[in-house]
Amino acid sequence: MSVMRWEAQQLDLEDPSALPGMPSIRGLLRSVQVPEFPGLTFHEVRARSALNHVPGDSAMPFPWTINPYRGCSHSCVYCLAGDTRVLMADGRQKAIADLRVGDRIIGTERRGSYRHYVETEVQAHWSSVKPAHRVTLADGTTLVASGDHRFLTGRGWKHVSGAMSGAHQRPYLTTNDTLLGFGRTVESLGACADYRRGYLTGMIRGDALLKTYRYERVDRNPGDVHRFRLALADIDALTRTQAYLAMEGIPTDRFDFSPATDRRRAMTGIRTQSAARVAAIRRIVEWPDDVSSAWRRGFLAGIFDAEGSRSCGVLRISNADTEMLTYTRQAFASFDFDAVLEDRGLPTRVCAVRLRGGLREHLRFVHLVDPAIRRKCSVTGMAIKSDADLRVRSIESLGLEMPMYDITTGTGDFVANGVVSHNCFARKTHEWLEFDSGKDFDSQVVVKTNLVEVLRRELVRPSWQREHVALGTNTDPYQRAEGRYRLMPGVIRALADSGTPFSILTKGTLLRRDVPLLAEASRDVPLGLGVSVAIWDDDLHAALEPGVPTPRARLDLVRALADAGLPCGVFLAPVLPGLTDDEASLDAALAAIAAAGASGVTVIPLHLRPGAREWFMAWLRSAHPELVPRYERMYARRAYVSAEYRTWLAGRVAPLLARHGLDRQSGGAARGADGRIATGVPGDEEVGFPAGSLPTGGMPGVRPKGERSATAVEPEPSSATGEQLSLL
């Protein structure tokens, strides 16, 4: 943070009280770090002005803005790359970018001298853009994380980067550290035809009845009886077996095999007595001449579900058939597992193949073969002990910023790529994390604590002409810091009491808190409300905006405003060329917006300004590489799409707007508080403001926007390029 940025706040106090490591800034009241907002610092200041004048050459249809906050409190510095694998409660792994609130995962807790793995829940999930570092461990594990992320070492929690002294002094990783966890494992692969046949071989040879015999009675002709039956207490394995048989064209009937007792669980079975089906099953489970890797994975999963056990830190597969034991040992050996045969001399001749290597190898086995019975795969309750070589080999800056993700859990940590990783502190107010787009964040947030007091002084000056004041055009007034400081109710009352028309643009559902106050204000002054719906497609929203309210949650806000009799325009932005600009996607989004009761809508294609461009293009290369050349052409030397594309998109949108009754502002019919007509559908430099998002009708003191009033208000300096709508 530069001193220049702070000087622009025009503060009036001389004696700052900063946190250690913060610069001595003129006008700073205090810097605050609170548990509800880990990783953030709120710098509480006293501002000399509240109203900011928009430069005269700006295209914005309002002359004044108010920014309660400088910076954005929606980010978190504890972040990992999106493909980092998180250990789930059932033993599977899921990329952190794909996690959702409510998912059950594995965290840790201290019990006596050791930490133990325990089940916990994802309470919040979001993303930001951070400079990336790569941590490489001796066993080959790699982790891409921000410098502020922390991992658990044998000497406590340590950041990825830091310093021994100075402003950045903190515990940080070195090559003398060893991380805690089970270490490197493998990614699970899909179930191909060979895997399915291998699974059926292991399951049916291991635990099913498959036979044909001669049935003879005195009073009947003899005949052959064909029988297949598999009965299990674990429904997941039975369901998988039945599904795999069906995929081979072999239907089976499900039935209740035995009820539960005090000593055993209920068992369910599948069966068939068709001669053709039994013969087909017998062919499937024959030992193959050419054994593939996929078949071996499936075979190990099937025999483990049928005859395997995992308890007290021991994983075994037992059987009395010598041929089955031989194939099991060969399959283990093909994947470089250390497995030994245990023969305890039992009368039943049952022997076991035991996998050695502890939790490290157990989880490699689980992730490699993907058994159906997940209770055998859990690590819950196990102590964090491992022989994995988790010494830090290197920590290197990658020299770029990239999208990163983090979660809040009930335990305050989780397992990432096999090592224990810290997360943001758990909190009851985690819903505040959903109020922004997940890019271009700043962890240093300036809060104008005296904003309402200063605003009231400015609004009662004789020179004030009650011109349209806009909120949310630069920083979102309903970002999560508002939940702590509650500045907006005072701002709304001050504007309404003075007869000043105003508008609010937000992504945050915290606005619902102030709906009664806004309804009351609407009786005194014209007002406009705007909500941006970034991406309607659920999958794209999950990939690009995992930390913000879903489109449907934002439309619930629109519906609440409409139910209160308040206007609300919706910005459908950004439309992504080649991804969300097809007619079906646009039609579905506009239909939902109309159903929510929106006053109007404006469709805006993607802007790629510096900063956002790097973030988005990194995602595009990973998720849709085929579109990269097109985007590089479209946005080669500019932040906006070409005029030709805007014209094409407008032509596609226009009939859809008419279809859903949202065309009343199309073509620029919405008029701003200054009398200007808002043009541009879709909008770029000339942003089309949807009906309802600007105050209209009967506004006092409205003049053409180009005329400045002779006001004594001391404006806060604005950017030389003018205000930018914070839609994307």
Could you characterize the architecture of this molecule?
- There is one protein chain.
- This protein is of the alpha+beta class.
- It folds into 4 domains: 1-76 and 428-501 and 707-728, no CATH class; 80-182 and 382-423, Endonuclease - Pi-scei, Chain A, domain 1; 193-314 and 356-377, Roll (Endonuclease I-creI); 527-696, pyruvate-formate lyase- activating enzyme (Alpha-Beta Horseshoe).
- The chain is 25% helix and 25% strand.
- The chain contains 17 helices and 30 strands.
- The strands form 8 sheets. The protein has a 7-stranded mixed beta sheet. Strands 6, 9, 10, 11 and 22 form a 5-stranded antiparallel beta sheet that branches. The chain has a 4-stranded mixed beta sheet with strand order 1-2-25-5, with no helix packed on it.
- Strand 10 (114-137) and strand 11 (142-145) form a beta hairpin.
- Helix 5 (293-307) packs across helix 6 (322-334), helix 8 (451-459) packs parallel to helix 10 and helix 14 (583-595) packs across helix 17 (643-659).
- The radius of gyration is 32 Å and the shape is elongated.
- Mean pLDDT is 81; it is low at 1-26, 72-78, 425-442, 665-687 and 698-728.
Continuous helix count: 17
Give the rounded overall mean pLDDT.
81
Strand content: 25-35%
Helix content: 25-40%
Structural class: alpha+beta
| SS elements, strand count | 30
Low-confidence stretches: 1-26, 72-78, 425-442, 665-687, 698-728
Question: How many structurally independent domains?
Answer: 4
| Shape summary | elongated
Radius of gyration: 32 Å
Question: How would a textbook summarize the main sheet?
Answer: 7 strands, mixed
Distance between the termini: 23 Å
Order of strands in the sheet with most strands:
3-4-26-27-28-29-30
